[in-house]
Amino acid sequence: MTIIVTGGAGFIGSNFIFYMLKKHPDYRIVCLDKLTYAGNLSTLAPVMNEPNFRFVKMDICDRQAVYGLFEEEKPDIVVNFAAESHVDRSIESPEIFLQTNILGTAVLMDACRKYGITRYHQVSTDEVYGDLPLDRPDLFFTEETPIHTSSPYSSSKASADLLCLAYHRTYDLPVSISRCSNNYGPYHFPEKLIPLMIVNALHDKPLPVYGQGLNVRDWLYVEDHCKAIDLVIHDGRIGEVYNIGGHNEMANIDIVKLICRKLNKPESLITYVTDRKGHDMRYAIDPTKIHNELGWLPETKFAEGIDLTIDWYLSHESWWEEIISGDYQNYYQRMYGGR
Ligand code: NAD
Ligand code: TYD
What we know:
This protein is an alpha/beta fold and 339 residues long. The chain has one domain: NAD(P)-binding Rossmann-like Domain (Rossmann fold, 3-Layer(aba) Sandwich). The chain contains twelve helices and 13 strands. The strands form four sheets. Strands 3-2-1-4-5-6-11 form a seven-stranded parallel beta sheet, sandwiched between helices. Strands 7-10 form a two-stranded parallel ribbon. Strands 8-13 form a two-stranded parallel sheet. Strand 1, helix 1 and strand 2 form a beta-alpha-beta unit. It is globular, with a radius of gyration of 19 Å. The structure holds nicotinamide-adenine-dinucleotide and thymidine-5'-diphosphate. The site of nicotinamide-adenine-dinucleotide has 30 residues, from helix 1, helix 4 and strand 5.
């Protein structure tokens, strides 16, 4: 079994590669990644010399190169994590989101049609459903919830999902889609809420909370997401969408306060800043389908997962120090400088 994992030098893709190499030591895993600002080759150092692992630096939008790789590797399964993934960046410059997230997905699926695969899996997000109101805690996203996007990021992911379903219907391509809630865990790029707050708190820097910090996200430990994808690519039904989430809704401000407590830092570091444009209020997944069909349930409780995550950042300072000492500084200044 050969699996091409795109975007494997990023947060979830790298965790997925580690999980799969351990769980299925007889599989060959080929990681295709462009190494954008969010991709980090040092993340993959622990597996780089494994005989059944190969890393290829490549852009999923580069049709010729992608076809060449498929010709060479003849993959059985493709799991597409490669994407521009940060909402704030999509608000600043949407175009690269459309290129990578939509056109890149089309190139990968065209390669799958041309060379034949048993499964193309699209890693999508709960953000395609838009948001839910704070005063209706009884509402959750199911797979039937209409697509209703808010940001250029979520719109590009929704477009890719529609394209996947169209390739299934039109060309009979064996696709599946998973839509997961917010992940947290090791190797999370420090532009996202949890790692940004950990890294800033460790430097005694202000903790920039958007708006009033009341927005709610449904947090899932990254390994639980990886386990769910492993189940879907093997046993999930073709042409189907599976929601992934663990009923762990938390307001941003509560997460930030928790991180302060865990790191023994004062809440006076919290700084309320101008809200994100179009900011989604609440995400909440109903995971009944994946539970009933595939037996998936999250295994890591938030209390345990956040401790594991904080410990990981404390013991991997060189990983994130290297990131924040580079071009990240310019990004941070642009995003938070005048806020
Ligand atoms: P990430 O930004 O950490 O990693 C993205 C990876 O894709 C990077 O390694 C980057 O180099 C690579 N990449 C970007 N453009 C590429 C291109 N054109 N060609 C090849 N590689 C390219 O993202 P992540 O948080 O690991 O998210 C992975 C996937 O999961 C994304 O599709 C995202 O939409 C989805 N998702 C993320 C979350 C979350 O909470 N992070 C939740 C649900 C779904
Ligand atoms: P983020 O990690 O960017 O994920 P997403 O927007 O895809 O859910 O943000 C999570 C939440 O945290 C979101 O409501 C925006 C908020 N947030 C802040 O308040 N401050 C920050 O500096 C960041 C990056 C996010």
